[in-house]
Structures are given as structure tokens and as C-alpha cells.
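An instance noted here:
***
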Amino acid sequence: MKRKVLFLATLALVITLTGACATLPPQTRPTDPVSFVGKWVGSWQSMVRTGYGDVKVTIERPTSEKPQYVVFHVSLTNAVVPGFSDEARFENGELIVDRPTLRLEFQLRGNDQLVINYENRRIGDRGTWSLAKKKD
């Protein structure tokens, strides 16, 4: 009986440690918005409602006229709005969109992962987009 309990405790510890290793890398804060440029694919999940789906984000290079801003394009499945384009400003190593009806915070995790926290103020929803950089 003691061996079985010890085995189950060890198994639980291994599962816990393995799960901890699967977490996202720490946030990186680049010094310019170019690190965000590219095509990103992943999924979105509401933290308030039962919504979830796929998401694709394309982030364009900043222009010389507006070096602290990027234009981005979003495509979503199972969402109130299936797609949109907007402009984000680079601030403290993140891209930020702050509109009366929408807030987005783009955070790089390592070299190839992007987390976008969203707040849809129009419908009272918030959640996360988890994306990986698309290989060319």
C-alpha cells in the first residue's frame, strides 16, 4: 500500500513538473516594433464567455513616416467580427491598441510566440489570442 501511495505521489509530481515546462517563455520587450512583423497563427479564447476559435494576424513593417506604429490585419473564426485591420502603437516593448470599444496588448514571448490580450468593451468580453510565428 505504501509503495502504491509513493508511486502515485511521484507520478503526480512528474505530471506537475512536466506541465510547468510547457508554459510560455517569459515576455520579451524589444526596442522597436520590427520584432512583431510577420504572419502569426493560433487560437483565441474568451475569459468571460464560452467563445473560442482560430485567429490569423499579419503585422506590417512600420513606415518611415510613423516608425512607432504598425498596421495589422486580423482574421477570426467563431467571432462577432470575423476580421478587421487597425493600427497599433509601439510602447514599452509592446504593441497597444486603445480605442473606445477595443483594447489589444501584443506581447512577444520568446522569438516565435505572440500573446494578444483583448478587451471588447462593446460587448463586455475579454480574453487571449495565443499565436505562433508562421514559418515561410
Observations:
- Strands lie at 27-28, 38-46, 52-59, 69-76, 83-91, 94-98, 102-109, 113-120, 125-133.
- The CA atoms of residues 49 and 125 lie 7 Å apart.
- The longest strand covers residues 38-46.
- Residues 5-21 have pLDDT under 50 and may be disordered.
